[in-house]
Amino acid sequence: MAYVATRGGERAIAQSERLYREGLGPIDRDRVAAVADALPWLVDRVMGEASLYEPELAALALAQTGGDLYEAVLLLRAWRTTQPRLAIARPVTQDRLFTHRRISAAFKDIPGGQILGPTLDYSHRILATEVLEGRPLTPAPVQKADRPAPPHHPSLAAWQKAQGLVADPAPEEVAPEAIPDLTREPLLFPAPRAHRLQGLARADSGGVLALGYSAMRGHGNAHPTVNELRLAEAELRVPHPRGTVFSAGRVKVSQAEVAAKEGGTRIRLGFAATLGWNEVKVIAAATLDLNAPGAAKGTPTEEEFFLYHTEPVEASGFCIHFKLPHYVTFQSALDAMRDANARKTQPPADPLLRCENTLGGSGGRSAPGAPHAPAHPAKETTE
Amino acid sequence: MSDENDPDPSGGMDHARLLETLAGAEATRLKALAEMLLPLLPAPEVLKSGTGLVMLPMRDTVQGTDFHLGEVLVAEAHLRLPSGIEGYGMVTGRDLERAMAMAVVDAAAAEGVQPEAIARFLHAEAARIAAADRDILRAVEATRVEMETF
């Protein structure tokens, strides 16, 4: 093990941080409020990946990092550790979600009907360059219906189970305090389903999309169709000291089920959900859940593969650690390369000497030209 | 811990409805009500006032597995009156004054202090919350589609 000291580094590090922050300018409440107002979908994405729901703090993290999502998630995950856990809420169930959007691509006549909600699904995507010429893009107001939509919709999966279309395993009753929790336990494989779904809920949106997309393109064992997609608000139901359970407020959540034919008679479903509204993430994550059973080791749809590789803080942290000093490791690789090159250019060694080295050389470096000399540089390790 | 929601005389609402209405009440008006009630209450002992996390579990619709969706930041306040009556407030976000105001009104309602004023406040806020929800759901309903296969 060796270490590298950086001379004069303190001042350079201080100035580099100043240079970074100078580029962002002052961060004040107005900027945070502007981020929260203007970028609600991005705020949602960051809250989901941070696994911490607080829109104002997420907007602050985005403002403070200039929109570097991995830095923003890291700030929020770190800040979260300063807070005590006060309670575990009552589990959210699908039929109690205050629903804003609810669609199915598999069944057109779903109980409760299809509601597009806020979406650009059927709209043209055209960059509004007129905004840059001084003509604001002012949205036309929604022409509201006379009567409201029902706040809650029945579960499509429950209907499918009742019809015998989907397997209906008896749910395991677990007290909220006994639900497996990745923030307090290591991730081990095969993972409890609660760990898998929690891991996907806090996963990196881009990472989940990449792996889910690979399954959609044919690297999985099942092609997904969206069974049900919801954007909704969930009640945070907590206990009062007197025992009354009440809602302390609502939080935005997304959830998706994707379906594939299982054998000749049934439908198999995959499921995912996350904090905030982020439907690409939940569709991709549900596709991974759908494909995980029976996936081959080391493939994108294998549980261990996708959970390890979509954890945003660990993945981004490991990636960026490679830019930190690796001089000793790399120097060792260079030394090994120079040794190898030197051996190639030297004349063959005396056969007798070679024999002695072979017989007596265990535990030491081989002489140049020895037949078992290492041909590859040493494996790189972190300094 | 029980899921039973105690009936409460304040405003004719049960305790859960009272708490939900307070948690969803407009912050400035809630704090003003608490300011008005506080001098009328015997000095409370503050047991808790701070922010913290509540883990939110969700039930998977495929296998019925409960799993943790993520944590929600909340402000919490808990106080006790000399009579032993406790007031409790929890709201999403970081507003400690809002949580404390909720706890004060909860305690005042249980103590029977200014029941008419509390009932007026609860009914007004419940109506405002219901109207806001209705407004959202009218917009949501406008996006309903009927799919046909040709």
TrEMBL record, chain B:
Gene Ontology terms describing biological process: organic phosphonate metabolic process; organic phosphonate transport
Record keywords, A-Z: Lyase
Keyword GTP-binding in annotation: no
Pfam families in the cross-refs: PhnG (PF06754)
Keyword Lyase assigned: yes
Molecular function via GO: lyase activity
Entries under NCBIfam families matching the protein: PhnG_redo (TIGR03293)
Protein name per UniProt: Phosphonate C-P lyase system protein PhnG
Record organism: Paracoccus siganidrum
